[in-house]
Amino acid sequence: xxxxxxxxxxxVAPLAVFGQQSSQDEAEKLRQQLKxxxxxxxxxxxxxxxxxxxxxxxxxxxxxxxxxxIPDYYDGMALQAGLVNTMFYYGATGxxxxxxxxxxxxxxxxxxxxxxxxxxxxxxxxxxxxxxxPPQMQQQLxxxxxxxAYRHGYDADNSLMYTNRLRLxxxxxxxxxxxxxxxxxxxKTWGDSTAVQVFNGQANSFxxxxxxxxxxxxxxxxxxxxxxxxxxxxGLPLYLSIGRRPSTGGPPMNLRxxxxxxxxxxxxxxxxxxxxxxxxxxxGEHSTLRFCYGRGYESGFGNGEVLKQPADRLEDADFxxxxxxxxxxxxxxxxxxVARAFNITDGFNGLIVLPANPLTGQPVNAxxxxxxxxxxxxxxxxxxxxxxxxxxxxxxxxxxxxxxxxHPDPVTTPFGGLFSDPFEVPKSHSGSMWYLGGRYTFxxxxxxxxxxxxxxxxxxxxxxxxxxxxxxxxxxxxxDVAEAYLIHQLAKxxxxxxxxxxxxxxxxxxxxHLGAPKKLDSKPILGFxxxxxxxxxxxxxxxxx
Length: 545
Prior knowledge:
Elements: H1 2-52, E1 53-70, E2 73-75, H2 76-93, H3 100-109, H4 111-120, H5 123-132, H6 135-149, E3 150-151, E4 154-155, E5 158-175, E6 178-189, E7 207-208, E8 218-230, E9 238-244, E10 275-284, E11 287-297, E12 317-328, E13 332-345, E14 350-353, E15 369-372, E16 377-392, E17 395-408, E18 430-442, E19 447-456, E20 479-491, E21 494-505, E22 525-526, E23 533-544
Parallel strand pairs: 2-22
Antiparallel strand pairs: 1-4, 1-5, 1-23, 2-3, 5-6, 6-8, 7-14, 8-9, 9-10, 10-11, 11-12, 12-13, 13-16, 14-15, 16-17, 17-18, 18-19, 19-20, 20-21, 21-23
């Protein structure tokens, strides 16, 4: 029996081993097949994802050389400090001082009282005190303080500055008739990623929601655009688009950059990152009418409004406008933009380093980063413009005329009111701007040369803090600006650009709706120094992908 059993084992054992080996082979074969299927699925999913989202972008290096001058002026902050100090002296002694030195001696001997006075001072108290002085006394006071506030003009050059800009674009077909578009952007100067500049009176030294990637800021990649568009609503040529809008780089500003139209509104009126809604209707193959809404300041979140009584809270700042491509095809664009901004505030939420207290005029000795929150609604502002842009063979050209009108409330703050100084009663003013340019393309479309010129009047103002100019938005100038440039394609999607811009400012306050414009050759009183002329040479190299 044992022999039979042993023989059986000898017979079965190889079969068992063979069967086990066969099972392992099958399992291994199955695993290989699963891996192959998994790879195919991953490839399909990757392809599907790539089909859903299309990525692109560009990187730009720029080198800038700036030669600028500041004209003779009276330092408004120093003058403000002198007024406040004199108020303290007058309140304690009942008489005007004989000299600024007498005020300083009095402050030194009563410094504790002086600190209490300046810390508790309000702008309304300051205005009331100034209004209580008879004109003769005001003149006497100014004659005493002005000499100490005088500043000789000086150069404000920057021989060489470099910047990096990275933009990543994405588009997706979400569903039938629904699309998504977005753009992330980073823009910085070499050697700085602080994201906050020391305020120097220029609009590009104040970081707000409207210009976070429009002026050099930091190495932070920010959301410049993110919006969906719902087309063919109810079977009509009607669409709805909501989100952070494509509101920068609009025509004709794209021409001088050698780019396609980058934004919807006219770029010489609105070049401002904002969140909003557009309802559009295609009137025909070559005409689109758009109704646009946006919010520039949200009062009810993040500003401590709950801590205030309802009567003391600010209104939201909104705008509503019409943007009509009257006719648009490959060779012609006739466009008009009309808009009103409601309840404009004395600035927008942002981060800032203030060198001086705008109420007391006293210097802020430490570079303190602070959140700036508006303190008042100042009124409404109307803007309107017409643009004709043409392509005739190798020559592109455009004509553009714009208009602005203020509707102020009788409100001022330490920064002023709509087109008025802090101690004035604001009045309605209007301004205008005209702009023309041309570009010639040759060398088998590899090279372009262009010339542009624009002029802004005394009360000209537009919403262009994100305009792609390193020195200042050129279309915001209250004066004359001339630009010449050359763009050459070095390789496919690789470009070099050399540009020169000359600014000749006539009035102060370009880019600002606050403060009264002042003739710059009249030794004006300025809250902050401003340029009267500047020349900017810029070399750019851009890789698009």
